[in-house]
Amino acid sequence: MKIKKFLKIVGGMLGIILVAVLIYVGYVYVSYARLDDQLPTEIKQKATATKIVQNKEYNITTFNIGYGSYSPEYTFFMDGGKESKAYSKESVLTNVNGAAKTIQNANPDFALFQEVDVNATRSRGINEIKQLSQRFPTYSRSYATNYDSAYLMYPIFDPIGKSKSGIVTMSDVQITESTRYSLPIETNFNKFFDLDRAFTVSKIPVENGKNLMLYNVHLSAYMKDKKVQKEQIAKLFNHMEAEYKKGNYVICGGDFNHDLLDTSSEVFDNNQEEEYTWLQAFPKKDLPKNLSLAELSDVKTPVPSVRNLDKPYEKDKSFVAVIDGFIISDNVTNRRTNVIDAGFEHSDHNPVEMTFKLN
């Protein structure tokens, strides 16, 4: 009798767990939705300048701020580390403000940000757009959602939770139009972990009647289907080429999640015994003939733009690479491009800056 009673209790508990799992899976499926392609983004117009001048030097930065969670000692479970959420609200505020101050010091005319959380468990509910806007009160701004997930129950004992995150473009010249374009993603179960990848295109007038088409992108990192990864890149490249053929100037900045050097592991003397499958070579050969990567000015001793998150950061010991940067059309001159050495103090990325002029 005691055994039957015990088995009944165990069976009941397993039944409850099974029902809970089914309810959760149902919730994830029901809550899943992708935003439509080609959506206009809201523009907060603060800049007073209305046009870009030809043959004048301008400065642009791009910075993946890592949703304010990644201080140097932080590790991330999807990279082989431990943590899934920021240590505290205070650490998020410190990191976002520190990242914003780094860009302020660069004094850019245009600033691109990725992994800016609006309301996410992982970043303790902090509205990071508000923080950035306070640092750049005279810049026009556009925002688009790049990632919007249901509450994800992994890791089981410390769930990453619900995330809503996006890409922010700031300009010291008025943005007349900004559009969000959806990127292809995997259609299997992995879609629940990589929900709404996108890029934005912000139109900024030039004095000659043409426009600077400013792209902001954050491509997928943990994608297993290489076909979809190539489709993401193809859509981005094709859109940029079409704008160039209209006679416009094209600059695309962001986190490409591809190795922008010939081989970062050799340049930075990474430990190649460990396998880091997320670092794939950037497909330079697939770029349309009128587009190119903005080459770093310091190619012999470059600064890395990203660190792996399997271990706390240690200079000259951590696995690092350059995956952030710019693509430009041939009517844009790259005067200088370098990674800003911020020591990964407030993000797992370092920002990249480019000085350019429109021909």
From TrEMBL:
The keyword Hydrolase applies. The chain crosses the membrane at residues 7-30. The keyword Hydrolase applies. InterPro entries: Endo/exonu/phosph_ase_sf, Endo/exonuclease/phosphatase, GPI-anchor_lipid_remodeler. One of its GO terms (molecular function) is hydrolase activity. Residues 95-275 form the Endonuclease/exonuclease/phosphatase domain. GO terms for cellular component: membrane. Keywords: Hydrolase, Membrane, Transmembrane, Transmembrane helix. One of its GO terms (biological process) is GPI anchor biosynthetic process. It holds the Pfam family Exo_endo_phos. This is Hydrolase.
